[in-house]
Amino acid sequence: MLIELADKLIRLRTRLSPAMMGGQPRLVRETYDRYDRLRGYKKYLEFCRSRLDRPLPQENTDLHEKGLEIVRIFTPEEARDVMQKAYSLSTGFTSRRNAGNRLYFEIKDERFYLQVLERIFSDEIDARIVRYFGSEYVPFWYVMQESRPGSRPSNSFLWHCDRGPQRWLKILLYFTPTRDTGGATVVLDKEESELVAKAGYTFCKTRDRTSDIRDLENRIGHPLHIMTPELDAGEGILFEPSQIMHRGLIPDKAPRVIMQVQILPSPIHWRKALQRLQQAVMPERDELAFPTHASRLKKILA
Question: What's the whole-model pTM score?
């Protein structure tokens, strides 16, 4: 009930003028507050940190300092084989509300996903994620998706940050080279993302998102510098999706195939945590959402 009332209050405030509410930067703070305080993610992170029973890596990386890092998961040949296996295992494709032109693979074989996750969370990447959270972590949800040429930009193909707590991660693992499809992920660095947030754009309503960087430049009054990583098959972007401004580029040559993974803190190692999640009833995993309250995640994993 408290969460529902808070959501209604935030929606009401978005209808008020910026002058009355101090502008949308207040909405940014309230969005983080809704997840970190009202939905319990700040205390949950503190709890997970208290349960870490291995040495905390000390080396800072681009992920820790800049909120974004390019990582190599598979060789191009391995990525091709994994993608072909995904197509063979998928019983079809589904779309979701507000998914734009994204189609989701219907793969019921959890062994396939586990094999991919084992490669994603190599010792090197594992150390980066543990350093970032200061705790163990868990892939809460993961999905293979295909985006096809020919549609207009919408939703995640418009400039945005993902709503959520301040500290969580996402990886976008590419199985098709960006040069071959024209489909990519473009980002602003953390400093410029913060400028866009201060200008009142971050966490705006989906219908108010834009694909034109000039709209954001007009808000802050100077040019922005778009980073467009050229990714080979088997490479991915590991980043802070609620703090790094980003958008997808719709492919214009061939379908883009990626795997998305949402990564949250955990009090136990990710393999054990994932086993417990698979045995629990959490519809948010199928909905590609956050647990309604972090206490539900804690109850299952602790």
Answer: 0.90
